Amino acid sequence: MDVQTLTFIFVGVTFAVYIGIAIWSRAGSTDECYVAGGGVSPLANGMATAADWMSAASFISMAGIISFVGRDGSVYLMGWTGGYVLLALLLAPYLRKFGKYTIPDFVGDRYYSNVARFVAVVCAIFVSFTYVAGQMRGVGIVFSRFLEVEITTGVLIGMTIVFFYAVLGGMKGITYTQVAQYCVLIFAFMVPAIFISILMTGNPVPQLGFGSVLADGSGTYLLDKLDNLSAELGFGAYTAGKKSTIDVFFITAALMIGTAGLPHVIVRFFTVPKVRDARLSAGYALVFIAILYTTAPAVASFARVNLIQTVNNAQYAETPQWFKNWEDTNLIAWVDKNKDGKIQYVAGKAFAGKPEFTAGRGESGERLLFNEVNGNGNELYIDRDIMVLANPEIAGLPAWVIALVAAGGLAAALSTAAGLLLVISASISHDLMKKIFLPTITDKQELMFARFSAALAISIAGYFGVYPPGFVAQVVAFAFGLAASSFFPVILMGIFSKRMNKEGAISGMITGLVFTAGYIIYFKFVNPSANKPENWWFGISPEGIGTLGMVFNFIVATTVSRLSPEPPKEVQALVDNIRIPQGAGSAYHHHQRKISG
Amino acid sequence: MSDRRVLNAEAYWTENIRTVLLLLSIWFVVSYGMGILFADELDNFRFFGFRLGFWMAQQGSIFTFVILIFVYVYRMNRLDHKYGVDEDRDDFVADEDYYHLEETDDSSPDDNRGEKK
Fold first, then answer.
1. What is the rounded distance in angstroms from the CA atom of residue A564 to the CA atom of residue A547?
2. Residue B1's closest chain A neighbor by CA?
3. Using CA atoms, how far apart are residues B99 and B106, in angstroms rounded to an integer?
């Protein structure tokens, strides 16, 4: 069977499983819809959290980015895992004890203020939309390349599936679907990684193969070989960093702290029965995440060696089929600058911008471009996002492995999209409608609002998937920067400082938000040409500025709270209460208890 | 709230903070220390086929993070037990009754806790 038939089968079977699970676990109440009735086991919740967290970016893009930037890719590896330590030690157990549905719930109650709640809702919606647009894009890429359907059709199919289980199943449906999706995505990521590791180093464990000698009998270590290859072609040693130490430090911190503050991740810890389950579940989640995150850098280095060896100085006419397939998907382009019919792949950009193809073909049969060619020796453009998807083809693995990777990429994108849509729908129906604008609605009406807003959110996300706004890549820095500079400090201080009051929290949140957003908007939108290390404050890039925003948030919040009255007695009692695990009960029952006046 | 309970809760919280600070300092040393600030120095050492700083940044720190969370879980469970603030009491109640009990608890949430010690 060919790759396309197999892909249809794999994707079809996994989709049928997701829908089956959704029907089996329909949500009947707001409680089941928002937090799965609070009855998910720590292990299942750990798996669901891992699938929720590992998006199209982790599955499809991350290894590709590391493959191209080498050492500097560490910021993603450490940043997107280290945040779980903060989450487990500083937030998850206490938020579970607090026991409500959403982050704005906590912010609104702890700071006895609907203004604080409103700021938190706006941030939660913004962060989640930023993220969800990227997921739908990932769905589109997989469909268009492997199933050869239009991106629009692909996005529509993806939307229908997510709609089905997110809107019907709520958190309960999503949780169990995510468990299935985790299994699909980790299997799909590991199988090719193990194959390639064996091919290249003879070691079946990619994490070990990464540090082994090559299987070609040369006796050189894989990474030494890669350092040499990269240096020869002018890319600089793979294991040496190019970013400044301070920038790496701040970006890693912003990603870690942002991860701990992302609403769709935090909400997962509301679904377990007990405080100690919340702690344990964070541990399981990180184990499941670490399996992929420690494999990704290995995959990145294998892919890099393979790619360089396959394409550099190869005759275009003799390149393997995958090269032409990706060229047809607009993600690879080649310009024969020196007219020798061979691909020269060295450092530098072959041409300005993304490839824009003409209808014509060149002498070797390559697709011609409108783009203005740069003066350097590099002739090849490769989109970083294709590395994981193309890797099995580059290594010449069997067709079913390639089909499996397509199904895995879809699982990663859909599971994250569903989790985010739930946050958006809960923010609108619960935090905005029930808590701020229409406090008198019944449970049933609220559930209806939840489903309606989920449907609306899916449609908007789908629109972004079909017509991707050019700013998606830029706004990812936003999502983490804003989560780091607003949510994380406000929740942390809410738990660890009894003295923190509403004046402090609101002014801190606004300082963090305005500073971080201002810095990012200036360098990404207002004056992009100035986005260079010499213009950055202390050499901190917009990606890492959230860390500084967080520091300002802490300073302003602490100062303002000292100058204004301490929080009411019942709020201080609430803080005492969340610090002790005993009596956590289910999230639902605490929902009944009114603590703020 | 009785004085003994307040003291108990304060002692629990102090030990909790100490545990968290200890674990977070390890977290900081392995990631920011060994993976970023002193990575170049560590790169002079080899660890199998890796440069050590590179390995810490791309592999070692992640393994350490996993271990840290499980150590935290273990230590906090012991701490909860030591101060009698764990959720074990809930385990003795059958599931359906458990929710019922919680509801009645809500009216006077703090009453049962002091007797545990």
1. 26
2. A573
3. 11
d(CA A511, CA A554): 9
pLDDT tens digits, A2-51: 888 888 899 889 888 888 887 777 666 666 666 666 667 888 889 989 99
Residue B115 lies in a domain: no
Residue A587 has pLDDT above 60, yes or no: no
Comparing CB atoms, the residue among B12, B68, B112 nearest residue A580 is B12
What are the pLDDT digits (tens) for A85-112?
999 999 999 988 887 778 888 998 899 9
H-helix or E-strand spanning residue A13: helix A3-24
Q: Is residue B102 part of a domain?
A: no
Residue A322 makes CB contacts below 8 A (sequence gap 6+) with A390, A393, A394
Q: Which two tokens stand for residue A557?
A: 């919040």
Which of B49, B58, B72 lies closest to A297 in CB terms?
B58
A97 contact partners, CB below 8 Å, separation of at least 6: A275, A577, A578, A579, A580, A581, A584
Beta strands, E only, chain B: 46-47, 50-51
Count of domains in chain B? 1
Q: B9 lies in which domain range?
A: 3-86
Which residues 60-79 of chain B have a CB within 8 Å of chain A? 61-63, 65-66, 68-70, 72-73, 76-77
Residue B25 inside a domain? The answer is yes
Domain assignment present for B69:
yes
Task: Give CA torsion, residues A497, A498, A503, A507, to 10 deg.
Answer: 10
